[in-house]
From TrEMBL:
Residues 172-181 have a biased composition (Polar residues). One of its GO terms (molecular function) is protein serine/threonine kinase activity. One of its GO terms (cellular component) is nucleus. GO terms for biological process: cardiac muscle cell development. SMART domains: Alpha_kinase (SM00811). It comes from the Eukaryota. It comes from Colius striatus (Speckled mousebird). This is Alpha-protein kinase 3. Residues 1-155 form the Alpha-type protein kinase domain.
């Protein structure tokens, strides 16, 4: 159940990120987190299982948490850089409360995401990685051209507050989509 909450909540953040990125010229393709479904099979020895789209090929790791607990981007391809930008965006959107840590997939379709959060049960999510990754991320993240295109601010340790869009502070003629609270 928690895996579904983690992946599907990350998917919702990714949809908002995609809407903002598509509104900006020159951003290009945007990653998509595929949905993860929880199914109930009452007659089975293992009554619960998860199900998701078959991506047809072995997954590539884009951003991973290493055994030593550090967060690492695997390469400098466009998809890896945009995954790093998505991480930065979510971190900023949630005022430092959530970080999408692990992302792998095939092409632009992502799966097996994990999160780190510094608040217990934040929006119904439980961390699947160490909350210390939030601090490591602010120190280790190096903004790339896609962070600049979206106008994301250089990361500094944030004081946890409510959530808002990182683009609200930008001077831009474009409007950000708002999620209902």
């Amino acid at each position: 159940l928690q895996e579904c909450k983690t992946q599907n909540s990350s998917r919702e953040y990714c949809k908002i990120f995609a809407a903002e990125a598509r509104a900006v010229p020159d951003f290009g393709a945007v990653p998509e987190i595929i949905p993860l479904y929880l199914i109930y099979r009452p007659a089975n020895n293992i009554p619960y299982a998860t199900m998701e789209e078959d991506l047809g090929e072995p997954c590539e790791q884009y951003c991973v948490t290493e055994r030593d607990g550090s967060l690492v981007a695997r390469g400098t391809s466009e998809i890896v850089l945009k995954c790093c930008t998505f991480q930065h965006w979510v971190y900023q959107w949630t005022n430092g409360n959530i970080l999408v840590t692990d992302m792998e997939g095939v092409g632009w379709k992502l799966t097996n995401v994990r999160i780190a959060t510094n608040l217990k049960g934040y929006q119904g999510l439980k961390e699947s990685c160490s909350p210390s990754l939030l601090e490591q991320f602010t120190a280790a993240h190096q903004c790339n051209r896609y962070c600049s295109i979206l106008g994301l601010k250089t990361l500094e340790p944030a004081k946890p507050k409510g959530s808002k869009s990182p683009s609200l502070g930008r001077k831009s003629a474009q409007s950000s989509p708002q999620i209902q609270k």
